[in-house]
Amino acid sequence: MATLGILECDVLYDDLIDDYSSYGVMLSELLSSIDPHLNYIFYQVHDGELPSHGDCDAYLLTGSKTGVYDTEHWLPPLMDWVQEAHARKERMLGICFGHQLLAHALGGHAGLSNKGWGVGNHMTEIDHRPMWLNDDQPAYQLIYSHKDQVSSLPEEARRLACSDFCEYAAWYLSDLVLSFQGHPEFTPEYFRRLLERRREDVGDERLTQAMNTLEQPNDSETIARWMIEFIHLPR
Q1: Measured between alpha carbons, how far is 187 from 86 in angstroms, rounded to an integer?
Q2: Residue 131: C-alpha distances to residues 26, 152, 172, 174 (Å)
Q3: How many Å separate Cα 118 from the centre of its chain?
Q4: Proportion of the chain above pLDDT 70, given as a percent
Q5: What is the pLDDT of residue 70?
Q6: Distance from CA of residue 43 to its chain's centroid?
Q7: What ranges in the chain are assigned the alpha helix state H?
Q8: Please, is 215 exposed, middle or buried when counting C-beta atoms within 10 Å of its C-beta (0-12, 13-18, 19+)?
Q9: What is the rounded CA–CA span in Å between residue 103 and residue 148?
Q10: Nearest-5° Cα angle at 220, 196 to 209
């Protein structure tokens, strides 16, 4: 049975912890609905906890309120760990902040976007499809909540999906990195509770538009299947 190391890059707001625990727990529950035999080890990266070589079969970096350009004490060690893990050909996944940090640490760039907040349930089109991906659907829809974006990819990485708003909505690098800007773990209920506290920053009009998209179906289960397929790729 495979083991996924989940690098927790944030702590939820106090009023959300009882119902949702953490981004890592939300992701593990989603992935377990696809693969109930997957094991997990959680690392509190924001407290300085990082995996040792060979701990897990793959690693997932979660979302965070932090940006890759911030000065949090745990960011440089995490960047170093990603670079060293990639050099060892460890398999890594990223979601939102994790998506941005993987790109930034491996030679691309991520930062604050001049397009403002990307929020709501949005469609992205498939650009390049990994050879290992056993799915031919042309697009997918996920819930997004971000004001930072990846602006360039690491060398040899390929763009998996894009939209007019988010140029690098997903990317991959061979069978070693798979990364998504959207949040497959977010439910509409969680999004509503999270984003209401950001209304002033996001803006009333954009937030109202985002809330109106939440009744649309999204492809969280599809993305979870892709992630499981990626984790179980043969070495």
Answers
A1: 31
A2: 28, 22, 11, 9
A3: 14
A4: 100
A5: 97
A6: 16
A7: 14-20, 23-34, 75-87, 97-105, 188-196, 199-202, 204-211, 220-231
A8: exposed
A9: 12
A10: 35
Catalytic residue positions, numbered: 96, 183, 185
- What per-residue confidence (pLDDT) applies to 197? 87
- Listed residue (193, 195, 217, 219) closest to 206, CA to CA: 195
* CA distances for 235 relative to 52, 59, 84, 91, 223, angstroms: 19, 15, 18, 10, 21
What order of strands is seen across the sheet that includes strand 58-61? 39-44, 3-8, 58-61, 92-95, 177-180, 170-173, 158-162, 118-126, 139-146
How many Cβ atoms from other residues are within 10 Å of residue 38's Cβ? 19
Neighbour-count burial for 178-205, b at 16+ CB within 10 Å, e otherwise: bbbbbbbbbbeebbeebbeeeeeebeee
Verdict on whether the full-model pTM lies above 0.70: yes
The tokens describing 179, both together, are 């990364």
C-alpha count within 13 angstroms, C-beta hemisphere, residue 117: 21
Contact between 15 and 202 under an 8 Å Cβ cutoff? The reply is no
Q: Cα(183)–Cα(69) distance, rounded to whole angstroms?
A: 21
Q: Which residues of 10-24 are buried (b: 16+ CB within 10 A; e: fewer)?
A: bebeeeeeeebebbb
CA distance 9 to 218: 24
For residues 202 and 209, the answer to whether their CB atoms sit within 8 Å is no
Residue 130: the pLDDT is: 96
**Nearest C-alpha neighbor of 220 from the set 9, 24, 31:** 31
